[in-house]
Write a structure and sequence with these properties.
27 strands, Ubiquitin-like (UB roll), mainly beta, globular, about 475 residues, about 10% helix
């Protein structure tokens, strides 16, 4: 503590921001100045700028022998002015930001059976708006898939408009190895499982094309989403035979996607208890690409003592009409996901996730709902049941130290449904209807409810789960090593 201050002065920014920051800065006249707490307050203040304003160096008003103002080493300086102690806060306004970093797993898995090892680079360029903080963001991705011997890329941009109610507009060109299975396992887990014990926990397909997207931030916690997607989707086959262990066993065959031109409209909405205003430019851009129709994993608590509930609700609908959009696919798929986590006490936490999915038309294989195994229902084989409708519930209880050692108990229940052939609402002469005629049941086919239960031990986000089918304990034991939260 360095004594009581009588005022705060910001340097390096325009007058409009000076007044705004003076009102919002947690350190005020009459407070006892503590450098560590002041820096925490400054970091919290600058989060809203998303990099447009950063801590700089404070200039002392005292004049050196050379006649120049003296530069202080840190962002803070305490000066005496007319008998008052003034805290001077030095800030700076960089015009933008540019970075290129390895982005293994950000857009494509860094190892898979269909591509082998996939080194990649990610690019992020931000052009800062120091008035409304409506920064233009340009994102790039470049990869090379060693086993399939082809490159992957993505290049896009996003720009928010207006003030309090922001409208985001953007677009992207891409040629990527994609999957709809992000909600079950993370990219890190999928890559480690493939390169280590030779387990394939994702099905992949290739997508090449363009997307135009928009989002309206109705208020800090609510966004409406829209995208037009025009791309070619193609099946992929296993191209790599490498793994550290179990090399005499084959990889699980990659589920064959249907080849065709997909023209689709995607609409949706997200409601987040923590809000979207403080997420990074990269996070906003990725979320607005709508590549995770089952929603994103929950963020961790903001601090060690943050006990606020964390929750989010996501809805997406993908509409592809052969007649209206000139698409080779004719389906409508809708997904609603709710997930939340709450601290029951200092050492107890409870989490839940519910997913409901339904569809019309004929879903291509890459859009089918599938459950079983890691990330959905413990005790079963991966993707044991598949259909065109889904209901899933996951419950998770943890007892222990946040970020430390903990015991875990969990329960899962889920079911998929396959609609009968006669209920398919597509053109009677279409390829999709002819293809489905021999593979669809005559009546509605509901799979039995898959129910899993078990326990685990964890350290931070790392955990080992021991899961069983409810109707086959203990013979159905499945042991899973996880490096990320399920939801």
């Amino acid at each position: 503590d360095e004594g009581v201050i009588d005022g705060v002065e910001f340097q390096g920014i325009d007058e409009q921001l000076v007044h705004r920051f003076t009102d919002e800065f947690a350190v005020r006249a009459g407070d006892i100045f503590n450098r560590r707490r002041a820096r925490q307050a400054l970091d919290a203040l600058l989060l809203q700028t998303r990099g447009a304003i950063s801590a700089g160096r404070a200039y002392s008003p005292a004049v050196a022998d050379s006649g120049e103002r003296r530069l202080r080493r840190g962002a803070f300086d305490l000066v005496d002015r007319n008998g008052q102690r003034i805290l001077v806060v030095g800030l700076r306004e960089p015009p933008g930001r540019f970075k290129i970093v390895p982005d293994l797993g950000e857009r494509e898995d860094w190892f898979s059976a269909v591509d082998g090892f996939t080194p990649s680079l990610g690019m992020g360029i931000a052009v800062f708006d120091h008035d409304r903080f409506n920064h233009t963001f340009v994102a790039g991705h470049l990869s090379y898939k060693l086993a399939s011997e082809r490159a992957g890329y993505a290049l896009g941009f996003e720009r928010p408009l207006f003030g309090k109610t922001k409208v985001y507009v953007g677009g992207e060109l891409h040629d990527l190895t994609a999957t709809d299975d992000q909600w079950q396992v993370s990219s890190l887990e999928a890559s480690l499982a493939a390169i280590g014990p030779r387990r394939s926990f994702r099905d992949y397909y290739r997508r090449r094309g363009v997307q135009i997207n928009a989002a309206v931030r109705i208020q800090p916690h609510v966004e409406a989403l829209f995208a037009w997607r025009g791309e070619r989707q193609a099946p992929l086959t296993d191209a790599s035979d490498f793994s550290f262990w179990n090399s005499d066993e084959p990889f699980r065959p990659n589920f064959t996607a249907r080849d065709g031109r997909l023209n689709a409209v995607i609409i949706g909405a997200s409601v987040d208890g923590q809000g979207f205003d403080l997420e990074s430019l990269e996070a906003s851009y990725r979320r607005h690409q709508l590549e995770t129709p089952f929603g994103e994993r929950l963020n961790g608590p903001e601090g060690r003592h943050d006990a606020a509930p964390i929750w989010r609700i996501d809805w997406t609908s993908e509409l592809s009409e052969a007649g209206a959009f000139g698409s080779d696919f004719d389906f409508r798929r809708h997904i609603v996901t709710g997930r939340g986590r709450v601290l029951l006490s200092e050492h107890q936490a409870f989490g839940a996730r519910a997913i409901g999915g339904w569809s019309g038309g004929i879903l291509p294989p890459q859009r089918l709902f599938a459950i079983g195994g890691i990330g959905s229902v413990h005790g079963y084989e991966f993707k044991q049941a598949a259909g065109d409708a889904l209901a899933l519930l996951n419950l998770d209880y943890q007892l222990g130290w946040r970020g430390g050692l903990k015991a875990i108990g969990f329960f899962d229940a889920g079911r998929v449904t396959l609609r009968p052939f006669d209920s398919l609402t597509v053109d009677p002469g279409s390829f999709e209807r002819r293809q489905a005629q021999g593979s669809r049941p005559a009546t509605r086919a509901d799979s039995p409810w898959l129910k899993g239960v078990g326990w685990g031990i964890g350290l931070g986000d790392f955990r080992i789960d021991f899961g069983y089918r409810v109707d086959a304990i203990p013979s159905s034991l499945h042991v899973l090593v996880r490096f990320d939260r399920t939801f």
